[in-house]
Structures are given as structure tokens and as C-alpha cells.
Amino acid sequence: MLVAFIAATAFSFDQRDFMTRARLFAPITALVLAATAPAAHAAQCGGDFRQFLAGVKQEALSMGLSARAADRTLGNAQIDRKVLSRDRAQGVFKLDFLTFSKRAISGYRMKNGAARMKQFGGVFSRAESEYGVPAPVITAFWALETDFGAVQGDFNTVNALATLAHDCRRPELFRPQLIAAIHMVQNGDLDPRTMTGAWAGEIGQVQMLPEDIIKFGKDGDGDGHVNLKASSSDAILTAAAFIQNLGWQRGQPWLQEVTLPSNFAWETTGLGKRKNGSDWARMGVKARSGKISNLPASLILPQGRKGPKFLAYPNYNIYLEWNQSFIYTTSAAYFATRLAGAPRYDAGSPDKGLSDAQMKQLQTKLKSMGYDVGKVDGILGSNTRDAVQNVQKQLGMPADAWPTPALLSKL
Question: What are the record keywords, sorted (predicted)?
Fold first, then answer.
């Protein structure tokens, strides 16, 4: 769940997997569309903007929202061309794990994260007590999303949502978000004139969409409102409620750095392959700190057998629900372990990876061999990793799913 504003680093990561949201709220969206299909079907997106907004208003009224709230929300809404530009040119996330994690998990964020956990200790204790989500997990997301609220975005939220709902690329996602914004206005939790956030409509210190806020929003400071933009207490509790809903298991680990013997069976690694912790231990897997849990876990190698190595427990999957980028997910999960007291990872000395052009060349070759790598986009996604691992095994190479110039040359 990320439109990340990592302004303190040398890069920007503006790509969020909105399909995760679409899956989470598909039942809500389906009910909305079913209830209003006869009246609003013809104007679900596109066409005259004012007529489109009139259709949104009627849909909101049919759901029990007030005409006053709808008029306040939509009355001055405008198309924002910068939003469309951002939507059409979302950055492709191609940094490797070591590069991304080193930039994202700075000394500043470590120090500030520890200070925030202390400052809001009571709120974090409540979050863990009520929702089972520990402070380091929430704090890592808080840091990576907005630098603890420092960089929340400056796009008018209603304009952004109205623009994307009117646009016909993903109206099934953004039209309900615009309806939810009306709901927030009615609750007194959103001022349509002044509320700003990310270009895709996310709001506040942990960057959540209006439907998320309506469903999971918590009043952490007791003022009777959910204000994720200004209230850190509200943001912390809301994030905890959302993470719990994604399936977080209380008291369980999420990621653990490990060491492996040099003759390890590399073909057993990868997110899709699980063993109980005791089975991994029998294979020579050892924890760098603490003890290996006997929960089911996958052994992941973000940069191959010569880079950092982690056991990913079931709670790691919650990170994938928040954001489906493997590198962001692993970095966020690792960041949380650092905030919880784990040592800095052993970076090792990974083999050189592929350039963007080389990665596209590899994907093209893998496609010609019958592997489904999806779009030839230069991104080392799960399908490409799986294909690389299979080819490495066939060629008698260590099957660690890390593509190198040596592999490309062999192909």
C-alpha cells in the first residue's frame, strides 16, 4: 500500500499496486455499483465532467450520504492534469535490495523511528494490545511512507480522486474512493478545499485511501475525528487496525536474517517454497540473532546467494498486501526488524546484476523459451525470478534466482 514519498533519499518511488486495494474492497465496490447500476451505468467515467460529478452525487445520495456533503465535496472539483501525467508516467521500481534498503533505512530514520516509538509509547502499546501489531512494524511504514508525516503530498485530494474517477483507466477503483471522500466530508474529517495528499488520493502520515479511512480509521487522540494528516496518534492506530485486517498474526515474527552453508540447496529458496523452521535448521540455516521459529517460512535471497539472506514468516505476507514490490516489501520488513533490535544485515558481496537493457534482453529470451515473465519491462518480478531459478538449475548453475551477466551469456 504505497505511494512512497522518500524525499530524503536520492530517488522517488511513486508506484503503488492499486489492484491490492481493488481486491480488498471488491465486495464494497460491487455493492455500490450494483445498487446504482441503472442510474449511473452510462456515466461511470468519461464524458462531460460536470455531468459525471452529478452522477457521483446521485450515487452518494443513494447510499444515504447527504446532498450537502456531496455538494461541498464536488462543487469545486476540477480535473488536475498533473494527476493524469503522474498516473501515465508512474516510475518503474528497478533498484536492487542493497541500494534501496541502504538509502531508505538511513541513520536519520533509525534515530527518528526510535524517538517516535518512545514519544508515542502509550499509543503504540494500545495498538499492540488491541490489534496485535508491534510498534516497529507500524513505525517502519510510517517512516517509508512520509518520513513520519514530513512529506505527505501537495495534491488536492478531491481533485485527484475526481480526476482519476472520471478518467476511464481505473474508474472501478477511484469512483468508490470519491464516494468515500464525500463520506469523510460528512463526518467532518475532510475539508475538500484544503485537504492535500498524494497524486492518487492517499491521505495522511501513513498514506491511506478514503475507503480505508472510513473502514479502519481510529480516533487515537480522542478528539472525535480521524485526522491522519495532523494526528500521529490517529495514524498509528489506523495503521494498526488496517494491518490487523490484512491478517497480521499477533506475537509472530515477520522476517529474520540467517546464514547458510556454502553448499546449500539453492533451488529450495524463494517465496513460493515453504518449510517449517525446524526443517530449515536441519538444512543448516542459522539465525544471525535470536532463534529460528518453527513456523512455516520461505527462504528469500533478494540479491542471490552472496547477498543478505532472510527467513520470511507468514506475517511477511502482510507486507506484500501493503505493497507488492518485493524489494520495497523486504526493505520495510527488514527496517522493522532493525527498529525491534536486530543487527544490520551482512551485505555480503553479491554477483553483479543486470542493467535495464540486459534485464529486458533476458526476459525476452526467457519468453522465447516458453516462460511466463509477464511484460518485458526490466523489472525482476516474481515470475522472472522463478524463470531464472529454473534456467539456472537446468544449466547446472547455483539456482538462487539472481540473474547475472554470466547467466545471460550462457543463454
Answer: Signal
